[in-house]
Amino acid sequence: MLDFKSYYFRIIKSVLAMLITLALIVCIGFYAVSGIMNLFPAQEPPIPTDNNIENTPEAKSNKVKIQLAGNVSLNDVLLSSNSDAYGKYNFDTEFASLKKILDGDLKIFNLQGMLDAYGNNESISASPIFNYPKEIAVSAKNAGFNLCVAANKKSAFLSTAGIKNTATALKSTGLSYVGISLEGEENYILREVNGIKIAVLAYTDEFSNQSELEQERISTLDLSDVESSSEKVKADVEKVRGLGAEIVIASLNWGEEIAAEPTQNQRKLADRIVKSGVDIIMGTLSNVFQPITYKNIVTDKSESKTVVIAYSLGNILAHPTVTTGQKSQESAVINVFVERDKNGKAYISSAECRPVYIYAKQLTNGFEHYVLPCGEFDLSGERPEIFVNDSDWTSCKNAYKNIEDIIKKSSANGMQLGIS
Fold first, then answer.
1. Which stretches of 114-178 are assigned E, i.e. beta strand?
2. For the packed helices 226-242 and 264-275, what is the interaxial angle rounded to 10 degrees?
3. Does 366 fall in a domain?
């Protein structure tokens, strides 16, 4: 009996040992699988996105900073100062100081000439052809600009081929452009920026010798005929508004060279087109900085709104000449801030002026050019190293004061821009 009991006891003991071992194996396997699963967690299904809209908080902030700058106008001195022995160009030095203040969302400048008009980046020249190297667009892009206005009186000097090659060259640098167009392109830019739709239109005053074919490639108006020009702009504004534009910018290459004030026709046309739907006018051509009107108006639709009218932003890069002198070196970057009100309507909430000075630094073998935010140098306790002498530094400080005076006088027709 004892042997029989002992036999069954050994069997029970063996079964229990097997069960315990199996339980341990199961536990170990469970924890092993859990660890592997933790290493490779299940993925959430992707959230569908619209490829045309950035899916970030910034993209829907409903606040936009628009920055407007004047002409890039190159003469022989600027071209020769920025080319090497092999005919290669680089303009990064000119824009280096400007780069830190180009921090907006939409940053626009005017190209007062053509790019690579012959299509081979050769036969580069200034006046009277105004055929610039592609590298100027590359440097402008590197500085932060993202939109180039290309509608101006010098854009069609080489007929349709020049317009086409300029557009192709700008596209190759990654810069968007407006005012000229390739076949099948629209004559406007419409972008959604931080949740606000902004349209940009650009025009140049009529060419007396322009063919119908060229008019298909460059946006023009006739400043001598305010009525027809205002109707043309109004029709374009209605078109982009119909496409959803909430803020409309119109660049106008107009007026008279080296003029300190806009003409009466400029004032009349500006008044009409802001009342018919334009919010911001970016004036170019004169090569000198002109007054800026910043005010509230009542539109043709009896709506109240704030507008900015910059009759001429002068030059953002140019070399002083006998005819232009210091005035052509004084300019500003205009910052226009757009927000959405509590009712969901986009509006201009504020605007300010950042004076700049184009410093042509004379060296023993030529010039170096710098676009300087002159307010920073005006406050310096001692002459900054960049200036060769006190006279050059004084010119920079005078530039700040001259722009400041223009802005203060401009407030007589509305509100005063902030100055920084």
1. 114-115, 131-132, 147-149, 176-178
2. 30
3. yes
